[in-house]
């Protein structure tokens, strides 16, 4: 016992000596240690890789390509793309996926663009804003807003599908549109419903798997500008929508080639990922704020269709989807919505040349969802992955003046356009006569500016139903944006009516072309029915008259019974004996 009590003072004295020794250390040393600890913490928390880039001599990381060894798309197109066979070096002072993504959201350094707006009405009454940027708009000199696109123009058109809550004014969309237009392409940004300053005009909202709007826009563009090759670029959620659409339509799409950038691929996996770590929860919160702002713009409709109180209290994307998307889209659960709308399930049916670009350090769309095997199994797909890049950022250069993926997309589409591997264009979209013969833009080319600044499409039949306050001079409306301008136009501004003075075709030839188009459309509608009947006849070795008799008997029983009495002898050689005994 004596030894135990004697050891207590010794321990106390040891602690005291330690504290006195610590007090002798200068305060500056403690501050330096705290600073070093903070820097190490931030370096790992922000996933910085500046030291790694420095040790590698700022050479960047190689682009890894995944594809089927027998892929003709790789051999004939991607193998000629210098950027995809090079290395990507991040802007040194943005050497973090989080720094890149945040810088893109708040700054982005986009070029100044002037869009021409076209309001497109889809079949369910919804309105989509199509923002055009023509090659002539960025070719130099003054922009001519009255210039039209001729229906027989062969300049390739690229459709850009933005990401979640993004529109044509997002920085990365401007980068892509300006670069493609600068290299001689006509660009049209297909904004999602309710975005781009457009009001919701039906009870349908867009979601991560809503492909109907894109399908109608693509079919309209293909019919309206039938000589122009049609390409598509999807970003983030827009990439998920694009790949899902390509998988749904397979060979029946007029798209000649496409690019997917930073797609979430599997929404269930991304939902789990975005709520896993602290830093990912910041993105979840930021996306939720954007979705709630989108819902606030259309509160009157969502109050009627969804759980508005739940939307207002949503703290995550999953909460918002539970209270809004599932109600409007008629999904039983959130996971059901995610599984139905994930593009990973449709990759195998993609029949057009498709380049997929993904970053392994994407803080929103995790690498865990990238479908490596599915992309390798489809000879039409080439998957390009980089070690760094963030979400849709990919800044390069000391001044972060450009986005690497934009250059890769431009090079891929240029090589594809000049090659023989473009997907064959179908002259008449196989989605009914309305899509091919009747333009949806005629339903609502008029616009109305409401008091809150929203642009509402008029769904009336014509200008007779509009008030004087709804009409604007020259049918043009300018939306105030810093360094940007939108010109709202009707369908005629984009070349649906060509002046005779400009060397357009005579009226008779135009009517002949329209008549041929109608005949071809009717033939395409009736041809599958005729083929099915012929196959049925060959398979069962029976005549057309027997099929007609069966149809009459099943449709009009009384008439069928009378015919069976009259023609019983003639049918004896055709029908089985058991049928005649009845």
The overall pLDDT average reads 81
In CATH, the topology of the domain at 64-266 and 348-418 is named Rossmann fold
The structure class reads: alpha/beta
- Into which percentage range does the β-strand content fall? 5-15%
> Architecture of the domain at 64-266 and 348-418, according to CATH?
3-Layer(aba) Sandwich
- Per CATH, the superfamily of the domain at 64-266 and 348-418 is Alpha/Beta hydrolase fold, catalytic domain
For the biggest sheet, the summary is: 10 strands, mixed
Number of helices: 22
Measured distance between first and last alpha carbons:
113 Å
Q: Spans with pLDDT under 50 lasting ≥5 residues?
A: 425-485, 488-507, 537-542
> Taking strands numbered 1, 2, ... along the chain, how are they ordered across the largest sheet?
2-11-10-9-8-6-7-5-4-16
Radius of gyration from CA coordinates? 31 Å
Query: How many strand segments?
Result: 16
CATH class of the domain at 64-266 and 348-418: Alpha Beta
Query: What is the overall silhouette?
Result: globular
**What is the helical fraction, as a range of percent?**
40-55%
InterPro entries: AB_hydrolase_1 (IPR000073), AB_hydrolase_4_sf (IPR050960), AB_hydrolase_fold (IPR029058)
Keywords: Membrane, Transmembrane, Transmembrane helix
Protein name: AB hydrolase-1 domain-containing protein
Family: Belongs to the AB hydrolase superfamily. AB hydrolase 4 family.
